[in-house]
Amino acid sequence: MAVVADALLVIIFAAIGRQSHDETNGVVGALSTAWPFLVGLAVGWALVFAASRRNRTAPHPLRAWPAGVVLWVATVLCGMLLRAATGEGTAFAFIIVATLFNLLTLVGWRLLAQLAAARRR
Description:
mainly alpha
């Protein structure tokens, strides 16, 4: 479920960005903007799964640190590198917005889940 939630958050990021720039093509347009970040997210998940398989005491993938941070950094870094490699925009303002939005969502929901779990205990 976490993989799906993360992917949906990345697609929402792309959709909001496209809508704020009055770009068209709806879902297809959002997916065309999101794909580099989805690839980055997949890289991040591969790193998290690899770490958890190597080390049985590795943090759960739903933890904000380090799993959420790894996912966030991989998503933004790979996404921007792929956008640059394919001739898409990587304006400084876009990098800042993408970095902050994905930090807020990919790490943020994990922090909220951890706080809720701690309150239940």
